[in-house]
Amino acid sequence: MSNLLNSFIQTNQPLIEETLLGLIKDIKAPQPLKDAMLYSLQAGGKRIRPLYTLAVLKELDYQNEDALIVASTIEMIHTYSLIHDDLPAMDNDDLRRGKPTNHIVFGEALAILAGDALVTIAFGIIARLQNISPQLKVDLIEKLSFSAGAEGMVGGQVLDMLGEGQTLTLEQLEEIHVNKTGALLSYSILAGAIIANVPGEIMSALKKYASHIGLAFQIQDDILDVEGTSEQLGKTAGKDLKSEKNTYPSILTIEGAKKELQNQYNQAFQALENVQMHNGLLVEFANYITKRSK
């Protein structure tokens, strides 16, 4: 990790953690529900999505005091998806971020409701922001709904589930991951651009960058599932193989997956180069994503 990216993360990650805690601790909800929500929110994690929102604004040299709140709502949506992913009816996992999964600690019913609470509160938080115009708030909410819902992450999860035990084509696998992983990650990048109200050329470049980096993120996840350990990953390694899931290594081989990872990185870099944004944080994030070990 470069000094530039490391410094950015060291500065902003604690602010994200503080914001997440502040947004949940004072809500009027039963304490067991708040405990379950905070358990998964505070279980650690790289915070890639909220950091990406803040990185885009940093690159654009645009400041908005509500940006941290918007970024934190993306982490709430991501955390809800992980809680539900780990449930017995879905991936049936007992380890997440190196800790017992939410339903292991709190039971299935409360884990489901904690996920429900995180996803619904996120939209209300954005709606109540004071320092973003009404039109831009509507844009943020509409695109978050699309990215997290049936036409994005949830739809991708269903396609992933339906593909288990079948042999998919590379195009079918890409469709799964453009939605399951890429949609919310892409939103986190575009959210920064929406807040800054960037011109069309910049938005188009960031959309292209986001689509390629979203796939790169998933390809590296698939590679790590094969090459990493449970201790490194903070979750059960080899889970995809045991579940007979289609992955980039299973379709392309591990070497083919690594070549495709580089291809996606190259295209993401090209998108930034076209608008002279190829010397800063977004490239450093792309390097980190494609070289990370967990």
Automatic annotation (TrEMBL):
Its cofactor is Mg(2+). It catalyses: isopentenyl diphosphate + (2E)-geranyl diphosphate = (2E,6E)-farnesyl diphosphate + diphosphate. Keywords: Isoprene biosynthesis, Magnesium, Membrane, Metal-binding, Transferase, Transmembrane, Transmembrane helix. It comes from the Bacteria. GO terms for biological process: terpenoid biosynthetic process. GO terms for molecular function: (2E,6E)-farnesyl diphosphate synthase activity; metal ion binding. It is an enzyme of class 2 (transferase). Its EC number is 2.5.1.10. The chain crosses the membrane at residues 105-127. The keyword Protein biosynthesis does not apply. One of its GO terms (cellular component) is cytoplasm. Belongs to the FPP/GGPP synthase family. This is Farnesyl diphosphate synthase. It comes from Psychrobacillus psychrodurans.
